[in-house]
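Reviewers of the previous submission asked for a worked example of the structure-prediction workflow described in the proposal, so we include one complete record here. The input consisted solely of the amino acid sequence. No template or homolog information was supplied to the procedure at any stage.
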Amino acid sequence: MRILSFKPGHDGAVALVEDGELRFSYESEKDSFPRYGEVTPAAVAEAMANTDGIPDVICISGWAKGFHSTDRQLGAGYFGWSEEKTRTGKSRIFGREVTTFTSTHERSHLMSAFGMSPFAPDQPAYGLVWEGNIGSLYLYRPGGEVELLRSVMLDPGNKYQYVFALADPTTTDENGGFRYSNAGKMMALTAFSDALEDTPEQRKLIDSVLARGKILKEAAKSDFLDSPFYNVGVESQEFKNLAWRHSERIFHSFLDSAREVFVEGYPLLVSGGCGLNCDWNAKWRDSGLFRDVFVPPVPNDSGSAIGTAIDAQRHLSGESKISWNVYSGQDFVVDCPEESAEFEFVSDDPAVIARALADGAVLAWAQGKAEIGPRALGNRSLLASPQTPGIQERLNWIKGREGYRPVAPMCRLEDVSRYFEWSGPSPFMLFFQRVREPELIPGVTHVDASARVQTVTAEENPRIHALLTAVDRASGVGVLCNTSLNFNGKGFINRLSDVREYALARELDGYVHEGRYYRNRSN
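From that input alone, the workflow returned the following C-alpha cells.
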C-alpha cells in the first residue's frame, strides 16, 4: 500500500510510506526555504518525482484554517485523540480513484511516536503530547489504540515562549509577541539562571500566564505593562532567572500529573514541539517512572505527515508500525561543476580532513539524503573542533545567531562515556548529558556543563564515524562541534551552489561534499 501524506500549515511536509516503510519525508523549509514554511510546490513536485506510481491513499493531516488551532478546521481538524476523529473517503488523482484519509493533528503526534518507536506493537506504552496548544497524557494499548488519561495544560508551548516574548523589546503586541524561534532561545537562556529561590514578581507573572487558556488569543503583551519583566531584555539576569523558574513550573506540572496516572512503568513516547527540549527529555528519562523513553527525531510538526500516514496505514491495514531511517529527506543536489576558481580540491582522506579540523578549520559537510526533523545529524552539518579557542563564538557568528546559543557535540557511540556522564545511544540529539571535563571540550559545553550529544555508529553514518575516528587520532579527542548547515532563518542547505555561497559569505575554511574536501582559497 502506497500512502502519500501532506502536513499543511507551518512545518509543512510531504511523506511517503509504502508497504510499511518510510520512503521519504520532504520538509518544505529544507533546501534553504524559510524556516517553519508551509508545503511548497517544490516539495510537492519532488515528492511526485520520487513516488513510483499513483498513491493508493492520499492523507491530509488535520489542521486549522488560520493562525490559531481554534480557527476553522481543515480535514479532521486540530484536536482529538480517539479513532472517532479519523475519516476516509474517495477521490481521483490523474484519472484514478484513490482512498483519502484524514485524522487530527493531535493524532499525528500520537501515531508518529508510536509507529516510529522501537517497541513491539503489542507493548503498552504511555504517551505525552506537549506542543503549542496540546498538553496531555495518554495510554497506548497494544496495537496503538489510544486512551486519554489526563489533559494537563492548555497551550504549554505557547505559554513557555510567552515570557520570552514579553521580555524581548523587539517583539510586538500582535499575538502576544509570538515567534516560532522564541522557544529555542528560551531553552538556551534557562541555563544561565543563578536564582536559588523564586520571587513574588516571578510567581505573579508565571501564575497569571499559566492560568490563561488560549494565551495567544487571550493575552497581548500590553496586558503585562506593569510587570517588571516587560521588555526587560532577554539577556538580563532578571529574565534568565524568570526563564528557568517558568520552565521548571511547566515541567513539574506535567511530572506531578505523570506520577499520579503513569503507574505501570511502561515506556514513555514523547511527541509535540516540546519534545525538542533536551533538558525536559533528560528529566523524563531520569524520573524513574519509565523503563525507557523514546522521542522521535521529528517530535514537532515536521513529523505530522509521517504520523498521519502511520494512522492511515493502521486504519486501513491494521499495521501500526513502520521501518524508517533518519536520513530520509531530500537528496543533495549537485547543480554546478565540482571544480571552481574559489575552492581547490585537497583530499578525500578522512585523516587530512580531521587534521584541518584539529587545526581550527570550520567546514560545511554535505552528503547523501538530508536528515528528517530540525536537528542536523551529520548529513547537513557545520563541523569544527570543540578544542579550538573561541569556536562557539565563531560558529554563532557564522550562523548569525545570539552568542548565548550552545553548540552541540557529536562523538562515536563507543566513546560517549569518555566525554559525557552517559552510556548508550543518543542518535538524534534530543537529550542533555553532563560533560565530564568541560575544559577539554569548551566549544560544546553549555554554561551549566550540559551538552546535547549525538552518538554515531559505523552502521548509522559510516563516513562521519570514520571522520570521528580520524579526529580522535589527530587530536586525542574524538568529539566535533555539529550544528546545522543553513542560512540564517532558512532550512538546511541542500545544493552545492548554496554550500559555496555560504562558505564564501560566512568565511568558512572550506566544505566537504561526499567525503571530498575543498579548501576556500581566500582563507
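The longest strand covers residues 86-93. We consider this example representative of the routine output the project will generate in years two and three.
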